[in-house]
Write a structure and sequence with these properties.
Elements lengths: L9 H11 L4 E8 L4 E4 L6 H22 L2 E4 L9 E6 L4 H12 L9 H4 L4 E10 L2 E11 L5 E3 L4 E4 L2 E4 L4 E3 L7 E4 L2 E4 L2 H8 L3 H17 L2 E2 L6 H6 L2 H7 L9 H10 L5 E2 L5 E2 L3 H11 L3 E3 L6 E3 L17
Parallel strand pairs: 3-4, 13-15
Antiparallel strand pairs: 1-2, 1-5, 4-12, 5-6, 6-11, 7-10, 8-9, 11-12, 14-15, 16-17
Helix pairs in contact: 1-2, 6-8
Amino acid sequence: MDQKPEVTDIFLWANKTDAIKNDMDVELFLFNKNYTPYSIRLNDELNNQIKPVFLYDLINFVNLGAGIGLTVREYEMSESEDNVLLYSDTAKVSLAGTLINLIEHQRSEIVEFSEQEHEFKTIKGIVARFSHKNSPDEAVHVVKQIQQSQSLRGANAWEINGGKFSSFKPDVGVKMPLDNQVLIVGRDIFAFNPKKFETLFKYDYKKQVLADKKVAEIERHFKLSFPDGLDLQTMVRERPKSINKLQKIEVGGISQDQVIDYADQMQLEIMTDDAGAIIILDNKDLDTFVNLINEDYMTSDITGRRYEVRNKKALDEPEGEPPRG
């Protein structure tokens, strides 16, 4: 039986980091709504601000908490309470794991952010990567949400300078959030602000638990085929749209053969392998399959046009008609 990895001792981490914080190097990355990271350079004028904004208050919060009984609990097993710090695992919070993996292991593929090419309005958050010369591979990542309402763009903003209005010269102005939000140490992710943690990484554990149960039911009921390295669980966890829809699906109402026939009737592209398993290669295939088992496609008897039904409400049986099924 696999042993559960030991969770980072956040109090020991804070104590050790406090001793070397002034010597730590920092790199900044922006990431967009698709969790694509971009590097961004730091002006020398901000060097004195970056560590207090991203790191020092985190350390102080934990060190202070050690003296007043701060409790550390597993996010999935606890509710948010005062004096409780919740943590999870980046293996569970897949979007966080993917983002950090890109920063740590695919650095050569990360391009520098440009407002002209990438547009700041698509940016979801910022990551500050802290490391020390004595242990460069043991970096920690502090993540904060970027709220677009807290940004200014040169095209539609003015600045007050010397007692008069003038045009706002930078491409974008950003008010950096000062609150503690998310810290990632190794594979452990600490949610100092659970609501922002959930928003940053689209993580809703209760929905995910229900979706996991539905996935298990689907895997028992249908024969499916995936590319190497993928399975239904992995694809669903990275697809909030599918997680939401799976909450309402009743597995078993439609069989494997009926799904294939249904797809054929609706002229949808769905493939099967030699063993008759339905092939799911990407998110488009996943969405089509989920829609099929939820019977979300229809053809109008009047126009003959095909539709995807986004919201369905079952009608009562007509009066005098016996229930079907």
